[in-house]
Amino acid sequence: MEEEYIGTRNSSRAWCDLHSELLIEIAKSLGLFDLLGFRGVCKDWRAASFSASATIESASGMKPCFLLHNDHDEKAVLFNPTTNKNYTINIPELKEATCLASTQGWLLVSQKGHIFFFCPFSRAKIDLPPLHKSEISPGPGAAVFTSPPLSNDCTTAIIYKNNDQILELDVLERGVSSWIKYEYDLKVKMTSFGVVKGATSHDGCFYILDDKNKLLTFTLEDKSFEMYTIVEGKDPNLETLHFRYKEKCFTKSDLKKQMNLGDDVAIFICGASYFGGTSEILIKNENVEARMEGIEGQHYKGVWIQPRFFQLPPNYSWSL
Length: 320
Fold this sequence. Notes:
Elements: E1 2-6, H1 13-16, H2 20-28, H3 32-39, H4 43-48, H5 50-57, E2 65-69, E3 75-80, E4 85-90, E5 97-103, E6 106-111, E7 114-119, E8 124-127, E9 142-145, E10 155-161, E11 166-173, E12 180-185, H6 186-189, E13 198-202, E14 205-209, E15 214-219, E16 224-229, E17 243-246, H7 249-252, H8 255-258, E18 265-270, E19 272-275, E20 280-283, E21 286-288, E22 298-305
Parallel strand pairs: 1-4, 17-20, 18-22
Antiparallel strand pairs: 2-3, 2-22, 3-4, 5-6, 6-7, 7-8, 9-10, 10-11, 11-12, 13-14, 14-15, 15-16, 18-21, 19-20
Helix pairs in contact: 2-5
């Protein structure tokens, strides 16, 4: 496995004196990871990279990478399963932060009571109105957004269980300054729902999955819930999910070994949704426990993310 560091590189003055037209052509030929290093050389190289960024921004078919971070360090490790390479990146926005959702290269992040959309590769950040809760801790829960946050019709929701009886959705529509809370009472409905493991959206409906083949939907138009049980098979009388989902992707891919992480490492992992060619794929949240007993483990957080690059227009905000 190879490891690289993405950051500012020292270069001689001759390299910095390259004509802007040549720099633009060089930037256009680079992949995302090389482009990040290219941008860190100097302001002229950064300016030359803007046109190249558009190509990477539109690369929606790229497979997710894995981003590892913790609460004590601004450095994060990005692992590309396709090339089997580790990259170290400075991302201060993820220090003491929890990723709630990952879709199309955007993260929904909670950090010390602040909630924001974030693209870690470009450092683009869109602050959202505060939630009624002071902090969202990593654990059973998920989030979802209907479209990229640059879209005027983007709606996002944070989902978690208040207790064993209440499932809560906090919904925020684009341009609105406050979250709206909706509750699904499991006791009244005389049903159960396990640990929230992930969520995705389709045609104005949120799809929320647990760890026990239960599916809860929430329709934005009429604000209604419906509970289903997921079964395998090809019965023509049964409804078919518009997406596929994957469980325990980190463990099944043996990424702990590939990333040279010790047995004392524990990771709470935020899943992701992405387009996998013929259908959308949802990677469920995962909790990887340390394998060494009697020893205090190292606690990390991780998130699956498509490597895409977005830039914001000047003075951009969530408010329309």
